[in-house]
Amino acid sequence: MKRTPLNFLLLGPLSVRLNAREVHVSAPRQRVVMAALLLNANRVISVDRIAEYVWDGAPPPSAAATVRTYVMRLRQSLGEHASARILTRAPGYLLELGEHESDLGQFTAHRRRAAELAERGDLEGSSAELAEALDLWREEPLADIPSQTLRDVEGRYLQELRLQTLELRFDAELALLRHAEVVPELVRLVRKHPLREALVGKLMLALGRSGRQSEALDLYQRTRTLLVEQLGAEPSTDLREVHRHILSAHDRPRAPDPLEQPEKVPEAAVAPAPAAAREWSCWPSPAQLPSVPLPLSARSGALARLQHFLTTGTMPAGMVATAVVTGRGGVGKSALALQAAHAVRGSSVHGQLYADLGGAARPLTARAVLPRFLADLGVPRDEIPEEESERESLYRSLTAGRRLLVVLDNASSTAQVRPLIPGSGGSRLLVTSRRRLADLEGACPILLGPLDEAGSLELLGSIVGPARVGAEPRSARSVLTVCAGLPLAIRIAGTRLLERPHWTIGHFARRLTEAPQLLDELCAGDLGVRPCLDADHAGLRRTAPAGVDPAEVFTALGTAGASSVSSSRVAGMFGCSEAQAEEALDALVEANLLGEPAGGRYRLDALLRAYARERAQAVAVRQHGHPYMRAG
What span, in angstroms and rounded, lies between the C-alpha atoms of 448 and 315? Predict the structure, then answer.
């Protein structure tokens, strides 16, 4: 299909141009929907969030159906080719948009190039890029959008983005000794934002360097009075540092020679004001990655693919390169993700954020994570917004144009992840989850399966020593068969052997194969296989009332001690259709409680059989000997 050139203007009154022809979206609520899609370009925005914007936080019961009608009419307004960019994606819609097809996308691209030039020391080029970005602004953004909620949330984000960009340009100009030139604009901005200490500090610095020290000191005193009276707070460390420099009269560089090249400015001329001239390299750079075990050669292929994606992956404008490492509990997702994250730290020059989202058993919401991330990015805790949507907007604003690596471990749903996606630019997002998270748009999946025999032997040998494994190869293989290639189980088995040097591997293999409760043997300290399986079972998707409960199917397999089963057999056991049986079995596969079907049969390894047996025994005890159907 032909791709119609688009040009959406957001940094002022909203307008749409198709092939240089302006298209007017007249209906007020359709304009709200259009703005919501544009501000979340290349990301799925839910119908619920759109409804919040359209009805200003009080959507009617029919909101979802009405939003669908608005989207249909919006598509009609845009025409056949342009409307094809609006895609239906659960739980809402996604607008496909190239980087240069909106002024906001172009603005973000200029900011990104400015950051790259600043990192290379080209402050002249960086300042020029920031100036071009700021030239894209017209009037007040979203002024013609009839949604106070949208203006409060997204409008604040856009205004904060503009102020940050202005501050970055002032930093570059001050570093280039153009202090006199920036004074008029800084005076105007400080009058408008008298409590924004970053702007006050830059104006003080520019005044002091222009020989106007008394004005700079007077500005500091007026600002301090305002801060104490209105916020009950003293000036920040940064602002006090600028004040100290001006008082000590050390920040009076010579006027630059007009013929002198800006890049030749002596370093000493810039150094006295590190607190005020906060360039990209001076932003807080969190480094939160936990330590990891040594990588396995059996995982070298997956590790290389993940590293390559994190360092070279490119995405359309407005999207962040995202990788999802998925697999059953204990398969080594977190270890692989953190090994890759440590390996690519050099490319995430602005730092690494990390959060354990707790999995399905104890999920941690973005509402709990965002305040920590914002504080780690330099936002004072008393300035973090209370409203969740405002926190998300501020987070996107702070991360836009930067090169961060955000690692979200143990995610149980896409809903946990979406609010923590950094703003567009060079950042990377790395997620681990037992679920595929197929509705995370544009994510690169890395599926981890169990280790093969060679990888399992390598891991066991790295714990107990290759000589001990080599002395009893057959027994070692027996242990590893029970562990089913699961790295967590192998590490626990190795730890138990390491703690008991008087045990032979053969003795431990017999304990595993003869134990009435196998999972009791696979515990060491705070590590255990059973909690992983409990978490998988807790996250098991339930069926509709007319279907077959996957948990009951799993219990029946445990009662029978089945190592494999077919959908036709389950249909016969539960008196249901084969389609219903297949749905229940697929739910067990999705929850990592069954292996994917091969030859029409779904398989259970030794660990899953042991766990299914435990669940069946627990149900039998609760039901006082209630008879169970057997798989035969």
Answer: 24
**Total Cβ atoms within 10 A of residue 364:** 17
- CB neighbour class for 419 (10 Å; exposed up to 12, middle 13-18, buried from 19): middle
Q: What φ, ψ does residue 266 adopt, rounded to 5°?
A: -60, 140
Among 137, 155, 135, which Cα is nearest to 145's? 155
Residue 546, pLDDT score: 67
Cα 177 to Cα 121: distance, rounded to the nearest angstrom: 15
Whole-model pTM: value is 0.59
Beta bridge partners of 22: 17
Partners of 352 in beta bridges:
287, 405
User: Encoding tokens for residue 326?
Assistant: 């998925």
Cα–Cα distance measured from residue 604 to residue 174, given in angstroms and rounded to the nearest whole number? 66
End-to-end CA distance of the chain, in Å? Answer: 54
Q: Which of 246, 241, 269 is nearest to 175 (CA)?
A: 269
Handedness of CA 238, 239, 241, 246 (dihedral sign): positive
Read off the pLDDT band of 411 (50, 70, 90): very high
pLDDT at site 264: 37
Tokens of 244: 């100290």
| Three-state secondary structure call for residue 210 | coil
Dihedral, CA atoms, 208, 171, 101, 39, nearest 10 degrees? -90
Amino acid at 177: L
- Would you say 465 and 358 are in contact if contact means Cβ atoms under 8 Å apart? no
* Cis peptide bond N-terminal to 60, omega within 30: no
Q: Which of 508, 499, 512, 519 is nearest to 472 (CA)?
A: 508
User: What was the pLDDT predicted at 17?
Assistant: 66
Query: Measured between alpha carbons, how far is 383 from 465 in angstroms, rounded to an integer?
Result: 53
Tokens 């003869």: give the residue. Answer: 514
